[in-house]
Design a protein that fits this description.
heterodimer; A: alpha+beta; Arc Repressor Mutant, subunit A; four-stranded antiparallel sheet; 4 strands; B: alpha+beta; Hypothetical protein af1432; 2 domains; five-stranded antiparallel sheet; two-stranded antiparallel ribbon; 28 helices; 9 strands; 60% helix; globular
């Protein structure tokens, strides 16, 4: 689900990635895969993607929309990505649809702390 | 006194659930020899019989695969149990002809096939629109896993496998016979049902992992891996057979012959068999079953597409299903209101789950009882309570569903609005308007000229409404607003009801997802085409209960239809604007 993948990248990059400049971070695809398929599933029971191939398809889609850049095994976040993350984070529907909120809350719970 | 009726129903449901479908059954079941259309004889012996004969599994014999479809196609009243046995049969054909497995591995795969639909309740996919609500209730349970949103039945199946005492005690018996840990067996079956190869790391032991991967790729067609998809093969064929009699029921003995029944395309049989490969997966660690040659898959999917358009998501079926969704939503919400007074969240969640899991006939009767009692005690404190209370008005329709389905086929059009003017209703009659996606999407390209903004907004709408259509569209408020505005102006109109076709949003969500697979195209153009297509598709049913039909002239109906459309469109344009919020602009505005 590319909206939530975008949200995960935006939140994970500052915690696991490397700062490039004021608005951009680098995050390795390996770290993202580890988060989606190990952390989210094993620690908080959320399944966002069926397979790595599906996740990679979403990354190409986000790159086409210029929300991220791709350089080999590295994702580079773009300024516009934060807008998508805001769409998720401040979504008024979070209150009305508890399940939608639960996905976001569980992602937040799985994010590494204080890295 | 009146509330006590609801309390009584609440505890009756809890007691029925516990007694029939939760309590462990301590018997040694017999072997069984069954016979089903298409695949013929199905043998059920130990250890499979320990699960097959459990009431929670036998419940599937009282759940029609296609809910109300038999109102239009009387042959379509086959059950989920028949389909589950069909999937089991296909898996056995493949296991026996292609694989060398020990009894334990074979039993695990067979159990996965038999239990793959255990998370389904009555009224079939009509209630898929409730999955956000149901999962919202179950989410607090520490055992609840959240698969992605289109898989309510899988989430419920996982919940049952981890929480239902009847299934768990049955699996413990099976595990003893297979000399394995019960928790490993439960995990293995959960993973087969989920069809998620990436989750394989949960399972320890190469043999068990191999059984799970075989099971996943026989049952489904996991993305990135491929697979046989026995589930889809069986339901496409079985539904076609029961509804149209297309498939000859030939009890052929050999694999080629049996698979040759598939779609009656004999030239594809050889290709299909040649296309089935045992493949190493992930650097040769495990093996899967994969279909290389897509010819038969393509034919099967053509038939599937035809069935979707003609049957599963036809406008008449969508109309009937939207009534069922409304009624089940109202009954479940009533149970929640009562449950909050007399029990804990975990208990009332279980009661609501028990309500949904009931066989078709019990679901119908309990819905009527619950809504009857609710209509007497709930007051119009807010739009939601009024929406629930008015559900009872529609509960009477459950007894005359076939006549409604056929009445909807007689229609006229006014400015893109479908008008159905003679729906029977006890002592009154119903008028229906069916609105298309224009009420959502007309003007969206002007409102959001930037592709990314438009795509994000439409994706949010599709995602939210796919999870929970009633709350996303704020249907109770739309209904209250519509009635408040138009009831006085048209004195012959007694009540207004707004019903949603949730398939609209599931398909929209699915079509938006396909954009990801085709990024070489022009996204702007493709999104435009999707919005055009969904602007023409009908999804919102407005029912109006009328006093005497002679009070409602043809001209008045047309005028009313246009007013209804304009009102709804106005409400939804606010919804679209709210979905797209530029938080940075908002922040700047706040700062200024």
């Amino acid at each position: 689900m590319w909206l939530l993948t975008a949200y995960v990248i935006e939140k994970l990059a500052p915690l696991k990635g490397k700062k490039v400049n004021e608005n951009e971070w680098e995050l390795s695809i390996e770290d993202l895969i580890d988060f989606i398929f190990s952390k989210l599933w094993k620690e908080v029971g959320v399944v966002l993607n069926d397979s790595v191939e599906e996740l990679e398809g979403e990354l190409r889609f986000l790159a086409k929309l210029n929300f991220i850049g791709m350089d080999g095994g590295v994702i580079i976040t773009k300024d516009k990505l934060s807008k998508i993350a805001e769409h998720i984070e401040y979504d008024p529907m979070r209150e009305q649809i508890p399940l939608w909120n639960e996905y976001i809350e569980r992602i937040n719970t799985a994010l590494p702390r204080g890295s | 006194m009146l509330y006590s009726r609801l309390h009584q129903y609440f505890f009756d449901l809890l007691s029925d659930l516990e007694r029939k479908y939760w309590r462990p059954i301590d018997i040694e079941p017999p072997d069984a020899s069954l016979y089903i259309p298409i695949w013929g004889e199905v043998e059920i012996s130990s250890p499979l019989s320990n699960i097959y004969f459990l009431p929670i599994v036998q419940r599937l014999s009282e759940i029609k695969q296609l809910a109300l479809t038999d109102s239009k196609y009387p042959g379509g009243n086959h059950t989920r149990l028949e389909h589950s046995l069909g999937v089991l049969s296909i898996a056995r054909l493949i296991i026996d002809n292609m694989l060398s497995l020990n009894n334990g591995e074979k039993s695990i795969i067979e159990l996965g096939m038999l239990l793959h639909d255990i998370g389904h309740g009555g009224w079939g996919h009509s209630l898929d629109g409730l999955h956000g609500y149901i999962m919202g209730l179950l989410k607090d349970d520490p055992n609840t896993k959240l698969p992605w949103i289109d898989k309510l039945d899988i989430a419920v199946a996982w919940y049952l496998l981890r929480n239902n005492d009847q299934i768990r005690s049955g699996l413990r018996r099976v595990a003893r016979k297979l000399e394995m840990k019960p928790e490993d067996l439960e995990k293995a079956i959960s993973l087969i049902i989920a069809e998620e190869p990436c989750l394989i790391e949960e399972i320890e032991g190469l043999k068990l992992r191999q059984a799970v991967l075989y099971g996943q790729t026989i049952l489904g067609e996991p993305r990135g891996v491929g697979g046989v998809n026995a589930d889809r093969i069986d339901w496409v064929l079985r539904d076609t057979l029961h509804l149209f009699g297309y498939i000859e029921s030939l009890p052929l003995k050999d694999l080629k012959g049996k698979l040759g029944i598939l779609l009656n395309y004999s030239s594809d049989i050889k290709l299909f068999l040649e296309g089935l490969k045992r493949e190493p997966y992930k650097e040769g660690q495990y093996e899967i079953i994969k279909i290389e040659n897509g010819d038969l898959s393509r034919r099967r999917d053509e038939l599937r597409k035809e069935m979707y358009e003609r049957v599963y998501e036809s406008e008449t079926k969508a109309f009937g299903d939207s009534i069922l969704l409304r009624l089940a939503f109202c009954a479940a919400k009533t149970l929640e209101v009562v449950g909050k007074e007399v029990s804990s969240p975990s208990l009332y969640s279980r009661v609501i789950l028990g309500y949904i899991l009931q066989p078709d006939h019990l679901l119908r009767e309990s819905t009527k009882k619950i809504l009857s009692a609710a209509s007497e005690v709930l007051h119009a404190e807010d739009p939601l309570r009024e929406y629930i209370r008015k559900g009872y008005d529609l509960a009477g329709l459950l007894d005359i569903i076939p006549s409604i389905v056929h009445a909807v086929e007689k229609r006229s059009y006014e400015d893109d609005i479908i008008i159905v003017s003679r729906i029977p209703y006890p002592n009154m009659y119903l008028l229906a308007f069916i609105l298309n996606g224009k009420v959502l999407f007309e003007g969206i390209e002007k409102l959001l000229p930037d592709l990314e903004d438009r795509l994000t907004t439409v994706q949010k709408l599709a995602t939210h409404a796919h999870i929970d259509p009633v709350n996303t569209l704020d249907v109770p408020s739309v209904e209250a607003g519509l009635e408040g505005k138009l009831k006085k102006k048209y004195p012959g109109m007694v009540s207004f009801y707004v019903l949603v076709d949730h398939y609209f949003f599931r398909e929209l969500f699915s079509d938006l997802t396909k954009l990801i697979d085709n990024i070489s195209g022009d996204l702007d153009k493709e999104l435009h085409e999707i919005l055009e297509r969904y602007s023409r598709r009908y999804f919102l049913h407005i029912l109006i209960r009328c006093g005497r039909k002679e009070e409602v002239s043809g001209e008045m109906v047309k005028e009313l239809a246009r007013e209804v459309r304009d009102f709804v469109k106005g409400r939804f344009s606010i919804l679209i604007k709210n979905l797209y919020i530029d938080y940075k602009k908002l922040q700047k505005f706040a700062e200024s």
